[in-house]
Amino acid sequence: QVQLVESGGDFVQTGGSLRLSCAVSGITVSTTTVTWYRQRPGEERGFVAEIGGGDWTFYADSVRGRFTISRDNVKNVVYLEMNNLKPEDTAVYFCYNKKYPHDYWGQGTLVTVSS
Questions:
Q1: CA torsion angle 97 54 90 88 (round to 10)
Q2: Residue 54 has what pLDDT?
Q3: Cβ-count burial of 15 within 10 angstroms (0-12 exposed, 13-18 middle, 19+ buried)?
Q4: Which residues pair with 110 in a beta bridge?
Q5: Which distant-in-sequence residues (6+ apart) come within 8 Å of 33 by Cβ?
Q6: Within 10 Å of residue 115's Cβ, how many Cβ atoms?
Q7: Which residues of the chain, if any, have pLDDT below 50?
Q8: Which of 83, 105, 103, 75 is nearest to 92 (CA)?
Q9: How far apart are CA 58 and CA 43, in angstroms?
Q10: Which of 5, 15, 53, 77 fits a 20 to 30 Å CA distance from 23?
Q11: Which long-range contacts (CB under 8 A, 24 or more apart) does 46-53 make?
């Protein structure tokens, strides 16, 4: 059973920074892909960034250059460092993992960026 627990969401002003954490149990983060998604008010959940077992990373165009995904293999945690935050980054942020055949989601953490 994989469990994902997000934390770090907060209220920040435009241009501010936050670091989100996704604590993972039930699977080793260095051997799998963990993905961050976000759900803006009134919208469907959308892709933000992911990190794979080979240390590759991939970002949505809207966050590339501002957000950085990384992981701590000892703590088994995946991070999302968010800089130069904009009001349109306001969303609930979720981390996700697929351990075939199941999909696992965390409960989400709320990021609010004021203008």
A1: -130
A2: 84
A3: exposed
A4: 92
A5: 50, 51, 52, 53, 97, 98
A6: 8
A7: none
A8: 105
A9: 22
A10: 15
A11: 48/80, 48/93, 49/80, 51/78
